[in-house]
Amino acid sequence: MNVLLVFDSRSGNTDQIARAIASRLEKLGSVRVFAANDHPSGIQLRGVELLVVGGPTQAHGVSHPLRAWLDDLPDAALEGFLAAAFDTRFQVPALLSGSAARGIAKTLRRKGARLVAPPESFFVAGSEGPLQPGEIDRAGAWADTIAAEATRTRAKRGSGF
Known about the structure:
- This protein is of the alpha/beta class.
- It has five helices and seven strands, in the order βαβββαβααββα.
- Strand 3 (50-58) and strand 4 (61-62) form a beta hairpin.
- The N and C termini lie close together (9 Å).
């Protein structure tokens, strides 16, 4: 299975989570990881079966570089894709902090993707971090859940990706 992970990271916390997720998804096959602001127009979707997107929660929502990348995707560009969304944010109710993961998931669905897991948040201790203890391990466990569900969904569909 070809996996693409696209993320935005302001202070490195989301980058750490993204790489922990990517390393666990390698059991599925090829995993490419891109920062949204480094390659906004150069991220190729051809051949991708699972798309994982994440970023920091900023101003109660999705960061500007990640929002720009998502908005640039044509309508129905993710038709047939499996997908998952995550964010990093303070450990307070999402009603108070917002959740980039929820906004990312909504956009992924609107562009045609099928989510294989609910949006997930990973927590930071402050606006510059660090990550709360145990969040890297939790990201790996979440990636295992994504891998299992993506494999199950792919088997139901048959190998006709």
